[in-house]
Amino acid sequence: MKSDVEELMPRLLPLETGGGSGNLDLSGTPRNPQEYLRQVQLEASLCPEVVVAQIDPTKLKKQTVNVSVAGCHAAPQGFSPSLRWQQQQVSNFSDVRQSITKNRQHWRSQILDDNVQMPRLTDEEGWKRFCLGENVYQGTSSGPTDAHQEPALDYGKVIQLFTPYCLYVLISWFEEREFVPQLGCWLYALLACLEKPLLPEAHSSIRQLAR
């Protein structure tokens, strides 16, 4: 009949129990594999089955870290969007996400055109050039009218495969460079394509963008 310990942690190596265990020196170096296994077995037997942490309740009342709980400063009068406008944007964004969800299976079954050269997954600079276009990447043009100069592609398949990484790359770009219309379009599209439950990387990217 096996013990409860053997039921949870079955014995994998044959090891004789009993004789000689009392003479083992736990601080010494084992002379052979059999002696090493006996040392491990003896150390395990000396450990209590239940360990209770000794906590001094008086220390729990002492504040050791000062954390500011003040919220964000409100925008000056006339500079913040109205509540109605915010609700409308949330509604529009929700409609886009629902549309993407309905068409997700269709996009996944599509094959990219042969002329679409995908960057490697870890190629940050390649993804910046791919998403924003050569002109924006090189910094030669960033005007509002330049967003429609380069030919558009259906990036549905691309977004589904690389959404979290693209989001991270473009947010990093936003921290270093000025905002351009192409960047706004991509950030909106990538956020709309995020699937729930969100990965920790996606949570981190959204917090980074919000800051």
From TrEMBL:
**PANTHER family hit by this protein:** GEM-ASSOCIATED PROTEIN 2 (PTHR12794:SF0), GEMIN2 (PTHR12794)
The name under which this protein is listed is Gem-associated protein 2
Assigned keywords, A-Z? Cytoplasm, mRNA processing, mRNA splicing
Q: Which organism is it from?
A: Nothobranchius furzeri
Question: Per its UniProt record, what InterPro entries does this chain match?
Answer: GEMIN2, Gemin2/Brr1
Region feature (Disordered): 1-30
Family to which this protein belongs = Belongs to the gemin-2 family.
Question: Is Cytoplasm among the key words of this record?
Answer: yes
Annotated localization: Cytoplasm
Pfam families named in the record = SIP1
BP GO terms, sorted = spliceosomal complex assembly; spliceosomal snRNP assembly
Lineage: superkingdom? Eukaryota
Q: Gene3D superfamilies from the xrefs? A: 1.20.5.220, 1.20.58.1070
Q: Does the keyword Cytoplasm apply?
A: yes
Can you name a GO cellular component term? spliceosomal complex
